[in-house]
């Protein structure tokens, strides 16, 4: 499941033309012991975790991407 929203920057300076940031929220759902935690950990940190335990509840990760020289992803 992927959702998208746009966060508007709180600019106090007059004339500051920073573009709004696009925020995507991705939910990974699946059976137990299939690698959801490893997949999200690898995407966000660039490496696989050395050791994992079963995730109980929810697990949050965050990553900022720069696409086409635009740091708004």
UniProtKB/TrEMBL annotation:
Keywords: Nucleotide-binding. GO terms for molecular function: GTP binding; GTPase activity. It holds the Pfam family Ras. InterPro entries: P-loop_NTPase, Small_GTPase. It comes from the Eukaryota. Gene3D superfamilies: P-loop containing nucleotide triphosphate hydrolases (3.40.50.300). Belongs to the small GTPase superfamily. Rab family. This is Uncharacterized protein. It comes from Adineta steineri.
């Amino acid at each position: 499941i992927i959702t998208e929203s746009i966060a508007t920057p709180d600019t106090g300076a007059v004339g500051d033309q920073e573009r709004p940031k696009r925020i995507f929220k991705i939910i990974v759902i699946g059976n137990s012991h299939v690698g959801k935690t490893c997949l999200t950990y690898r995407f966000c940190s660039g490496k696989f975790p050395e050791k994992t335990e079963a995730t109980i509840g929810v697990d949050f990760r965050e990553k900022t991407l720069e696409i086409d020289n635009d740091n708004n992803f």
